[in-house]
């Protein structure tokens, strides 16, 4: 196997390492970033009746 450059070598080395790892099943909680939340998606924040001791 001849490598084009060090980056090519490192990518090949990483692929070899990935093959040895046991393949896990698909993660059900995988966040893909396909959905971009809008303000309508977020729950409305309720105004607190208790004044924070940290404020002021």
TrEMBL record:
The cellular component terms of Gene Ontology attached to this UniProt record, alphabetical and capped at eight, are: cytoplasm
Q: Which InterPro entries match?
A: Endosulphine
Principal location? cytoplasm
Q: Which GO terms describe its molecular function?
A: protein phosphatase inhibitor activity
Region Disordered, as annotated, extends over 1-56
The signal peptide stretch is none
Protein's name in the database: Alpha-endosulfine
Source organism, top-level taxon: Eukaryota
The alphabetized list of GO BP terms reads: cell division
**Localization of this protein:** Cytoplasm
Concerning its family, UniProt says: Belongs to the endosulfine family.
The protein's UniProt keywords, in alphabetical order, are: Cell cycle, Cell division, Cytoplasm, Mitosis, Phosphoprotein, Protein phosphatase inhibitor
Q: Look up keyword Cell division and say if it applies.
A: yes
Cite the record's Polar residues compositional bias ranges. 45-56
